[in-house]
Design brief:
It is a single chain. This protein is α+β, with helices and mostly antiparallel strands. The protein contains 10 helices and 18 strands. Strands 8, 13, 14, 15, 16, 17 and 18 form a 7-stranded mixed β-sheet that branches. The chain has a 5-stranded mixed β-sheet with strand order 4-3-2-1-7, covered by helices on one side. A 4-stranded antiparallel β-sheet has the order 9-12-10-11.
Length: about 325
């Protein structure tokens, strides 16, 4: 009998539309002969299954079931592709843990920690991973950190961004002290905490990875060359960047990045597909930028690009992830 997979998408952050596009990609990648696939959109307080006839069915949050015709359907597996809250910050993972629903991503703690860039940077620094210097400005306490203190500590240029969020929403590359306060105000529109982060100039790379009980796979590395000031929303989604897979780096550096990616995956105890962004500075120093636990999954996103470069099939990878989690639940 076919298992049922719900692709959970949407969310209430600025990344809602990106999530919906990722859901389309994932639906096209999952083996339709092996699984029944539904998309479930969470948005503005509504949880709705999108049915094949174009109608919507309200999701019962007691057990994540919904009705199609005369059938009540409770999915066997949730593939989470919400970028931002509540799918990337641990909230949805906690819900699925409570109702006993296996899902595709890392667990609550890892999701919450990787979602907060400031927390993640300081955690990874304790393990000897190189990250940019940064400081935090909390909402309601903006006046307690003066612009001069930020410049003295972080330097210029620097990046001002929401501590929690993605797709570069609310992110500004600040070049002068006069730009700091407007940048902080912009970032506060996206979240409650703002991170001012030191600028690092170099080569930007991103590397995907997934693991099961049977295998450990690190994908070929992508080099990112933005045509804009930095890898902002337009560069990510409006083709205003060059994405080169495999990256134009030495074999030695590629091996070091791959090993670090695998090590971080294990160190955090990740599950499913993750993607780690790096900046390579002078002397081939590898600096961690961000860990994406629900990376974009459209046909042109980094992960599908890397999978193609590796000569692998997205359908097989989706099956690996789903079956590995189902097996672990069955055996527990």
């Amino acid at each position: 009998m076919k298992k049922t997979v719900a692709i959970v998408c949407g969310g209430d952050s600025s990344e809602h539309d990106v999530s919906m596009r990722s859901a389309e990609g994932i639906a096209s990648f999952i083996d339709a002969e092996r699984y029944n696939v539904y998309k479930v959109e969470i948005h503005a307080g509504k949880w709705e299954a999108l049915l094949p006839d174009g109608s919507r069915s309200k999701v019962n949050r007691d057990d994540f079931s919904f009705v199609e015709g005369d059938k009540t359907i409770r999915p066997d597996f949730a593939y989470i592709t919400i970028h931002g809250a509540p799918g990337e910050n641990g909230v949805l993972q906690g819900y699925f843990d409570l109702i006993g629903m296996p899902y595709s991503t890392c667990g609550v703690l890892v999701e919450a920690m990787t979602y907060d860039k400031f927390v993640l940077n300081n955690y990874m620094r304790a393990y000897g991973v190189s990250v940019a210097d940064s400081l935090l400005v909390k909402i309601g306490h903006e006046g307690e950190v003066c612009d001069e203190d930020i410049v003295e500590r972080i330097g210029l240029p620097c990046f001002v961004k929401p501590s929690r969020g993605g797709s570069s929403f609310g992110t500004t590359k600040v070049k002068t002290i006069e730009q700091l306060r407007p940048a902080i105000d912009l970032a506060l529109k996206e979240g409650e905490d703002v991170m001012a982060e030191a600028f690092m100039g170099g080569t930007e790379l991103t590397c995907g990875c997934y693991k099961t009980k049977e295998k450990s796979v690190v994908f070929p590395i992508t080099e990112v060359v933005s045509k804009n000031e930095f890898f902002d929303y337009a560069a990510k989604y409006n083709n205003e960047s060059d994405e080169i897979t495999p990256a134009r780096i030495s074999d030695r550096l590629a091996e070091r990045v791959s090993k670090l990616t695998s090590m971080i995956y294990d160190l955090l105890g990740c599950h499913g597909i993750i993607r780690i962004d790096y900046i390579i500075t002078e002397g081939e120093k590898i600096n961690l930028l961000e860990i994406n636990t629900t990376p974009g999954m459209t046909s042109t996103s980094f992960i599908p690009q890397q999978v193609r470069a590796a000569g692998l099939d997205m359908k097989d990878i989706m099956t690996d992830i789903i079956e590995d989690k189902l097996a672990s639940i069955h055996n527990s």
